[in-house]
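Q: For a teaching handout, I want to show students what a protein-ligand complex looks like in token form. Below are the inputs, and the small molecule is zinc ion. Please produce the holo structure.
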Amino acid sequence: MSEAASPPVRLKILQTGEPVLRQAGRALTPGEIHHPAIQELIAHMRDTMRDAPGVGLAAPQIGLGIQLAVVEDRAEYLTGIAPEVLASRERKPVPFMVLVNPTIVEYSDDTVEFFEGCLSVAGFSALVKRSRRVAVEYLDERAQPQRVEASGWFARILQHEIDHLRGTLYIDRMETRSFTSIENIGKHWKDLPVEAVRAALGLR
Ligand code: ZN
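A: Here is the structure, written as tokens, with zinc ion included.
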């Protein structure tokens, strides 16, 4: 999937309110996954995610109602984040991966709550509770069946992206009183533990 010779392609990322973001994507067949058009789309989604930058991008976000998402949490994204924040979020680099027709087959009972954002709800963020660990079965870009067990921030990314493929956005799951502009996160909430944020917002 290396395309060193081609300039990166930036697809338009749709914003909330577009109907396709609220529709379940259809599954892809192995034959479709191997098709050059899908292989090219995967490369374009990777470029678009990196350009945004984001740690995941699902096909409905670029207007396609199919069960395809890309994920990547690059080491360079983590350099500006305080070590204690990374530790509390259990956030570590995740290599680039392609998820086709993914299903979450196991959810941990223990949950964790953090501010989460979405490229399709640009400029905003909110507290979202997610399972701390999940197991996901999916097809990779070669249509090979795979299973991944993820914890911490990686598990959150997977839950967020797979939600997109079902027509769900984080705003459906968020603690509504915590909904905030990104600017105000930096101003008021950034370095506070979640418990302190909840107390300040009048949440128990
Ligand atoms: Zn999103």
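A: Two things your students might notice: The chain is about 30% helix and 25% strand. The chain has a mean pLDDT of 95.
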